UniProtKB/TrEMBL annotation:
GO terms for molecular function: ATP binding; ATP hydrolysis activity; ATPase-coupled intramembrane lipid transporter activity; magnesium ion binding. Residues 74-154 form the P-type ATPase A domain. Keywords: ATP-binding, Magnesium, Membrane, Metal-binding, Nucleotide-binding, Translocase, Transmembrane, Transmembrane helix. Mg(2+) binds at D337, T339. ATP binds at D337, K338, T339, E497, F545, K568. Residues 370-392, 401-410, 594-615 have a biased composition (Basic and acidic residues). This is Phospholipid-transporting ATPase. The chain crosses the membrane at residues 229-251, 272-292, 1071-1090, 1102-1122, 1147-1167. It comes from the Eukaryota. Residues 417-430 have a biased composition (Low complexity).
Amino acid sequence: MAKEGYDDVRRYKLDKIENNKKALVLHAHRPSLGSDSKSPSTPRNWTLFGKSLKIGGDSSAISYEPNSQGLKHWATLKWKDVKVGDIVKLERNDEIPADMVLLHSSGPNGIAYIETMALDGETNLKSKQGPPSLVKRCKTVEDIGSIRATIVVEDPNIDLYNFDGRVSVNGETTPLTTNEIVLRGSTLRNTSEAIGMVINSGEDCKIRMNANKNPRIKTPAMQVITNKIVIMLVFFVVLLALFCSIAYEIWSQNVEDDSWYLEHAKVPFSQIIIGFIILYNTLIPLSLYVSLEIIKVGQLLLMADVEMYDPDSNTPMMCNTTTILENLGQVDYIFSDKTGTLTDNIMRFRKLSVAGYAWLHDFDLQKEAAEKAEKEGNPPDKQSKGKGVDKRFSKKRPHRPQLDARKNSEISHASNPMSPSGSIRRSGSIWKSTARPSKTQHEFRTEELLRYMQTKPHSIFSKKARFFLLSLALCHTCLPEVQENGDVEFQAASPDELALVKAAQELGFLVIDRPSMSITLSYASTSDSAENVVESYQVLDVIEFTSKRKRMSIIVRFPNGKICIFCKGADSAILPRLKLASLAMEKASEVGRRSSVRKSLEAEEALRRMSEHSPRSSMGRASMSLNRTSLSRNRKSLGHGRPSMASTRLQPIRDELDTWLKERENSDVERTADDASAYYTPRASTGRFSFASERRGSNQDIVFDNLIDEALVLDDAAVFERCFQHMNDFASEGLRTLLFGYRFLDEEEYTGWKKIYLDATTSLVDRQNLIEAAGEMIEQNFDLSGATAIEDKLQKGVPETIDKLRRANIKIWMLTGDKRETAINIAHSARLAKNFSEVIILDHATGEVEQRMATATLDISKGRIAHSVVVVDGQTLAEIDANETLKLLFFELAVLADSVICCRASPSQKASLVKKIRTKVNKSITLAIGDGANDIAMIQEAHVGVGISGKEGLQAARISDFSIAQFRFLQRLLFVHGRWNYVRTAKYILSTFWKELVFYLLQALYQKWTGYTGTSLFESTSLTVFNTLFTSLAVILPGIFEQDLNASTLLAVPELYTHGQRNESFNIKKYLGWMFMASSESMIIWFTIILEMHNKTWVTGFGYFISVGGWFMWNVMLSFAWSPHTGKTFPLYPVADGFLTRFGRNLLWWLVVFLSLAGVICLELGVASVRKAFWPTDTDLFQELQKDPVIRRRFEETVAAEARGETETVEMGQEKTSLEREGEIQDLLDERRRTADEHERHPRRDIPSI
């Protein structure tokens, strides 16, 4: 109760922090309450300074009337005081305090850029623009105070993606949609100032409507079994008391009635049964629930693990509860957010394809490597990696990435496209795809592209590449800002655009200014001039990106007067709009067919491997099918005997374990086409150039002649095929691809289209559709410019962590508010989806959701699909929830699938999915992890909630059960501490039940010799302290310090985590086994609880000594402290001087003690030995295996390699034999002998002192 009270206080403090945030409110418009009817059907009326507000019926209406009363200035109010109808002023980077309709923005064309990451997880900024009828009348504070308007909005609801309302000004009515509404939980970005009017506040805001208003109280899963056992014990105590009472009645009739010395001693049945219930009530260990808290406090302190500390953010692992520590060891489902949880909210330009050639861009990685080396006190010299890149690609102006002789001296060997011998160096890059780490990178680096363009500036390829880089620098809406130190930073509505513009900057095309309708570029001249060329391009029109169009276009006028339209977007949007669309579609189909064949072969290989092992769903004992017979035979040699003999006997086991681990660590079945390099190397079809060929000399011109095939650049069919193959490969690596096209326009065509577009942008009716229709007219007949691939950087260790979680039989769902395409890309890069996965997309727009789910369920059930990923969007999920048949089909499919991705999901939908899996999948433990306010609902709904202290804020970390800084720490949190806490708690509970039964069963056995009269075997004072003081440490210490397996073993072998999922440490069967042993042992068997502990340390030894020695000290104390002068005599319990003068001096008593102790120890050890010999568990096996130093080193090296980010497989070492050791010793002796002989031949001459 105290702990729940503390949680309530903590939540109150967090609410207080949120409610006391500051907002600027127009003071003249603060409401003063007039009258308020409590009936919800009667409109509520307020008299406001300058406005009249009416709310009632099915919608809310806010009416503004001119009123000049009141001082019009911006007053600072707390969020909790903001009311509906208030006018709120927002400044750059301010959080939105309530749902508002936008009235004014200082941005271009009245646009405000809003970040909604905390609402829907999208990193792209949303452009919001107030209703035109209000914007033109709300330019100043005076205008706002004098406007006359009525705003009608929908009732508060949870829908984040739709909004219905209208605004009427002077009889002119316009609709209100999501484009004019900004929601609480958003942040104003890239806009210096915005003004809005509150339409929903407090609990009526959409983000609060999506929140879990009444979070459930979380309880440990083991408590269910514990409660069942307690109920069983209640019945057992009642039955035992009833049995003893009946036995007393029988004994009374047979003995007591015939014994003259027992006359008038009979006890009524009602009293004797109550007496027995009191005597045996301690068999029900109600103190267990209290002492469990002590155990969990100790476990909590030990979870302060430095391995889960993030030095970059200075964030340790935080535990906000002690209630559900053991649940961490039993997780079956993980529900993860995407943005900020799996990803790092950072986009990096990674690859490009132009004129049929692909290039890898890794300037950022080389710069980071150079900075890391310098930070570690090892600054790179002229031949070290990254120094030249760091200097050459500085963001300071003027910028010239030309490779002249002076800068060549600074370029490192790693970044130099020419090896010392003059041959072209292939991309032995430090970058590896997270989705396909084993894939060979065929691409050249963009450094080689720049060098080629400098060496051959007038070649056809160079012109095409230069024009493609120009399109990167022009086709965007980013705004450059020159910092005080001269660096150029960009404000972008999308991190993708920011990555593209930065890449253009690094490749020589720097945007240095962007006035209202122009873009100023600085780039290197193609001539020998050392000066950069600065040109200004006039921006004529921008057709912005929308999820429906999937593309963005910009029309610019070149300095020479030519007009060109650049367009970038998804391949599905650009391909049909190419000039040679039919040829492009044909080549894209060919690439798609090749990809399908490769994926089908990989899927067949995966199915073959699955058939060789036990099914993943069963996770039976065969999943860890090491040769147990051979291990049992060689168990004696583990850690014993001569090293050489032990090594010989253990080597087959080591080899078998190494093979078993490699099969699971290298589960990739990727197949690379034989001709894969043909789409990257020049003239592969003719064999004229090959990177495997010998060097043709050191002449750089000869090398560059063979680098690019100019004839291929002019072949449209070859360029299309290679470009689409590159894009297919980029996508398979988890990169986000974009296709670029361009077309030059004549003046007449543009003038005619401009009139249509202007009418569309100024229309008050159906404006968006008219703009899209106008865009369709001009976005046609493009020439292909090239393709780009952007990496949405994952947090460190995310793919490896997901692989290990999957090996641990944990299913991972990704729930995000982002778009479907983005979610699928991240799923591939994070290895949620494999390259051969069957991606089952459920889309309500197709009308085939039910058929698709039924077919997929059947295929998965029959084992026809190697790896399945279900993708569903929020709107489809809403329709599924509304139909009971579809709901049953969906959850049947979702439970069978390997992974599920839910995109465009609202916070309430995330929580609903978690709740349904938690309640519908029997005995499943769910874990939800996220970092934003939109993840709070699902974190509270899951059995275990984990918050990431990420870039979306600390809302999730504060409200969660556990908080970590990085997703990768989930490995250690679950596999190590989760497993240990589960085993510790299980052992503590079983030990407590065991000692209670052992101790109090003696009372029942003793009744046979007391005529079942309820006489206690033990003196009352000793009985009380025995159970509290002298048996508590024996069970508490294992409950805090037990470690059944090493941390390195648990991390290297995630399959061991299934121990907790299957409830192997604590179940009814295990309990009955322990109770059988308890009923077979004597009074002092509880002393041997120490034998149950695998990890024996001085702490547990000290506890054992205190428990045993303390009991005897207690007897000595009673002998002295008991006063016989109290007038009371206790003939049954000779306490006074009992231990010192009576039974303590009786050798027979000591003999009984030691014989009993030896007997029960032998029984415990014998049963344990037989069980481990004939029915060993996975834990028993790995306890023996980790004793071998070679195997233990293999586990430790695997964990260390993963921490360093290495993907190579760790090899199992071998222990040196005695012959090898003797050889080493002999070599040392020979070396010393040679050194001595050398000294004898050349004695050292002493140098005389001066």
